[in-house]
Amino acid sequence: MRDLPPPLPSATAAEPIPDAARAEVERLLRTGDLFRYTSEDSPVALLEAEFAAMLGSRFALAVASCSAAIFLSLKALDLPEGGRVLLPAFTFAAVPSAVLHAGLTPVLVECGDDYRLDMDDFAAKLPGAAAVLISHMRGHTSDMDAILALAAAANLPVIEDAAHSLGTTWHGRPIGTLGRAGCFSFQSYKLLNAGEGGILVTDDAELVARAVLMSGAYEHNWKKHPVLAAPFARLQNTLPLYNTRLNNLSAALVRPQLAELPRRVRDGRRNHDRVAARLNAAPWFDVPAPLAPEVRAPDSIQFNLTGMDDAAAARFVTDATQGGVPVQIFGLSGDNARAFWNWRFLGEVPDLPRTAAMLRRACDVRLPARFTEGECDMVAEVLLAAAETARAAAA
Ligand SMILES: *Cc1c(COP(=O)(O)O)cnc(C)c1O
Question: Does 129 lie in the same domain as 221?
Answer without folding.
Answer: yes
